[in-house]
Amino acid sequence: MRSFDLAPLYRATVGFDRIADLMDRALSADVAQPTYPPYNIEKTADDAYRISVAVAGFTPDELSVEVKEGALHVTARKAPEPEGKTYLHRGIATRAFERRFALADHVRVTGAVHEHGMLHIDLIRETPEALKPRRIEIGRTADVEAHALSSTTV
After folding, report:
1. Is residue 9 included in any domain, yes or no?
2. In angstroms, rounded to a whole number, what is the distance separating the alpha carbons of residues 37 and 119?
3. Range of the domain at 21
4. Which residue among 19, 37, 77, 135 sits deepest, i.e. has the most Cβ atoms within 10 Å of its Cβ?
């Protein structure tokens, strides 16, 4: 596997630490990433997303969805089963898990729903007003000169 040195990126940029860290984690990630539980990420609108996680065998009380440190954490802990159950075949995996999803800036979780063995987490990207494009009115030269004169005579 190839390794990349991101040191020049750190030396030449300011304020992009989170992006550089994300790239560093993605490039150095172990190839054997956990595949349990399976999940989908879909784009439901221009600025809306949905993460669907297969959580068969878990109740809503056994699931946890948290946002901390710029990441979405989905965890599950199965309650202990009552004694006396005997399985002839156990094919539904109900082992504990923790799944993390890195969130971009200005992405927030709007809700989570558990239905039919799936956990659906809805997210939306909200661009702050300061980052939205805005139109600058173009004035005429006479208007600019008059404004400059009025501000210097004060």
Report:
1. yes
2. 11
3. 1-33
4. 37
